[in-house]
Amino acid sequence: MVVSQPERADRVFAALSDPTRRDILRRAAVGEPSVSALARHYAMSFAAVQKHVATLERAGLVAKRRRGREQLVSTRVEAVREARHELEALERLWRDRLARFGEVLEEEQR
Length: 110
Prior knowledge:
This is ArsR family transcriptional regulator. This protein is mostly helical. It has helices spanning 5-16, 19-29, 35-39, 46-58, 77-109, and strands at residues 62-67, 70-75.
């Protein structure tokens, strides 16, 4: 399935909007925990944690691989980097707009 850039960004930021998913992403960035190991950290069912992992996987933020009966989860650093670039582009846009707004105010005060 081909996912357009805006659709992918929507999926990434929707996935990152949940604190549990952000925590899973952090834990999977420093190791390769199994879904079972991740589930031990949260006061929710194993199925609920699986759904969070699936959401992160659909967004391209994590990858899963099988090792025996376990599913290991790892953070896709390049996807996190792409999200950071999206945010930096928005920051630049707003900084430029605010700078221009400041220039207009200065011109009017003269």
